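Alkyl hydroperoxide reductase/ Thiol specific antioxidant/ Mal allergen
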Amino acid sequence: MRWSPSPQGTVNKHTFTTSMRKLIFLTCFVLPYLSTIAQTGYSIKGTIKGLPAQSYTLAHYFGYSQYIVKDTAAADTGGSLVFTGNKPLPQGIYLLLSPAKRRIAEFVIGPEQHFSFSSDTVNVVANMKIEGSPDNELYYQYQQKIAGYNTEIGLLMAQMKMRQDLLMQTKINNLRRQVYEYYRTFAQENANSLTGKIMKAGADVELPAAPKRPDGKVDSAWLFHYYKAHFWDNVDFSDDRLVRTPALQRKLDRYLQEITFQDPDSLIHSSDFVIEKALKAGNKEMQSYCIWYLTNKAENPSIIGGEQVFVHLAEKYYLGGLMPVTDSGTVKNIRQKVNTLKPLLVGKPMPALSLTDTSGTLRSLADIKANYTVVVFYDPDCSHCRQSTPALKEFYEKNKKTLGVQIFAASVARAPEQWKKYIREFGLQEWIHGYDYSFRIDFRKEFDVVNTPMVYVLDQDKKIIARRIQSEQLDGFMDFYQQKLAYEKSLKIK
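Predicted structure tokens:
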């Protein structure tokens, strides 16, 4: 049967069926598309009761000691605020900060960047509720559980102050074990989430049963070497999101400060080991962070001779082109610093230095006959120099005969009368003093005198054995150095 055209106001059955199919197809296609459009960028809405009506900051961690601001929003009188943007936020852990930079809350910003939260200022963590972000639900689930454990442990420890009880200590130890087990299990069970990955990165290595030494005792050295070799097993160096959390920097600090022997060669080896892992993983941001952080940390060393670590890392990664730096000024400054430091590293001969003393005689550092020469660059008007001079004088008086110590004091100021007054004021006539009447020496460039006083310790061959050491530390260093020499001598005898 043939269908005739429909009267006005009626619907042809074929037309209706075809139209419905098109509508269903368009609905299936367009709704997901519209949903995708709606989910671009980020939208984080929340209410924290009791929050003052002020402007607040959303910032992500950069390591644990720094953060980078990404957005600001004003809270209304009810404590509600909204952070929105057209582009997705870099993923990581974010801080909600007050105008005084006080931390109010933390959020895990992963793939889900459209979510809401609610809490109150009485206890932000305990009362936090999340909608639309499984990562943040996990994050606060964990924090709330740990807070419960910590409350129990705190109560038991308070009772322990009143009376020592072995049973109570056992309970505390059991709770601490439960905390660790919960942490480990939580990280494993949620390994596919950003929260789980962050927690896994901070987790310790599971140690196997250690072999025993011939005397039957556990081989603790084997355990240590195993622990160090597997220290980074839980860290995914291909995931730059870890840069925007506290976990990576804490791990780096622990590896360098607690797991690595504190001498330049060991620190260089450990730094290279970590950077090599980042380079192999291929993530540019992770590579840049590891190189930057380790080089930056080495720039202000806490050990004698630590400048060697900075020079190595700067030459290999910055000047070697492995660190992507777009600012040519940065590379230029690093090259200048390396060029200054290389001749001044511990173990190198001290560069030549000749200055004029108060009688007008040219005094050369190379001509000083002493077992040890302390070279101090100072400014007579520098408050720190004046504060440390009595300690330096006391060290000299104590060791000038017993250890054969001499002091070569070089004034970096351009004021000869103040220089002479300083010598008289502190009674330093026994020292060898020098002044650059020619004004040709660039003390900053040639001897790294960035701050004063700058102290070098030289052996009898004028080789640098310490630098950047405080006057108050000289006695302790010389004791250590004498013991080191005695130990090395005993090894040669054997």
